[in-house]
Amino acid sequence: MTIDTERRIFVAGHRGLVGSAIVRELQRQGYPTVLTRTRAELDLFDARAVNQFFADQRPTHVFVAAARVGGILANSSRPAEFIWENLVIETNLVHAGWKHGPSKMLFLGSSCIYPKDAPQPLHPHHLLSGPLEPTNEWYALAKIAGIKLCQAFRRQYGCDFIAAMPTNMYGPNDNYHPDSSHVLPALLRKFHEAKISGATEVVCWGSGNVRREFLHTDDFARAATLLMDRYSEEQFVNVGSGTDLTIREIAELVSEVVGFSGRIVWDTSRPDGTLRKLMDSSQIFALGWKPQISLEEGIRATYGSIFGNGKNRVLGKPLVEVLPVDGP
Ligand code: GFB
What we know:
The protein has 10 helices and 13 strands. The protein has helices at residues 17-29, 47-57, 72-77, 79-99, 137-157, 183-197, 217-230, 247-258, 282-286, 295-306, and strands at residues 9-12, 34-35, 61-64, 104-108, 161-166, 168-170, 201-205, 211-216, 237-239, 244-246, 263-267, 313-314, 317-318. The strands form 4 sheets. Strands 2-1-3-4-5-9 form a 6-stranded parallel β-sheet, sandwiched between helices. Strands 6-8-10 form a 3-stranded mixed β-sheet. A hairpin with a 2-residue loop joins strand 12 (313-314) and strand 13 (317-318). The longest helix has 21 residues, at 79-99. Residues 320-328 have low confidence and may be disordered.
């Protein structure tokens, strides 16, 4: 496919798990102008600075991948950060995108926007049909507001703002901090450290019986760029792999990939979170996208790139120095 080389594409949150994958994909496709800004260069909490950036740079396409994110513990223990930071970032970007448009914008949400007891697989029409999962309601509410912001600006001002809801993702540039990471990086680190130290058991959180769907960020990035090119509707689009598995099965898979031979113990004093959140991704499948990286292959690649060959490091730093992802 020929690409539009005139595009000025801004990826907000380019250092994060998802934003970095989108940048890699845009570069792979050959886009010459991919704009990125570190937090020191552009503070997304500062509406004036965001407006100035849009006025100066005139991005034609914007991926909103900047967000305060984290796993079940961070989500439930830092509610103010998760609701406020996400609301401010998305408000500033959507407003600047409208004011200095026309630019097409893709807002990224999360499968946790759905009610905790919604029927499976989760379909966009289940949004706001029941109470949210308490462990992540603050984050979910901010993401629902982001969807509604895009829809409102589309309805009132005709902005070409769309939204995608990815399932649980993993890949390069993830956060490995024990308190704020998601389950996959947390387990990779726990099993790796247990193997290195010769520990006989690894303690995982919850019952292990709840189910999650996973997607490698390289697969998601292909979906995000496809939506940017070919989708322009008010309804958001689910992006998942189409299959889920229990946390117990995930732990067993990670244990095998890492080569840990001890026991897995379940700490049921820790929360399970949502019972299940398998998404109905038929719409993105119908657009011709499907995941290419199997879960086992993706976990092996991630483990190899971070901890393989005796590296024992995250992003070039020793594990002990790795801190939680600190905002966009
Ligand atoms: O990935 P995770 O933190 O978040 O946890 P959610 C998924 C499941 O793995 C939960 C279990 O049942 C955890 O109890 N688990 C087992 C662990 N061991 C561990 C561990 O060592 N660390 C972690 N983190 N989990 C988040 C939401 O939900 O996922 C967000 O809070 C967002 O809003 C995100 O949607 C994608 O899948 O439960």
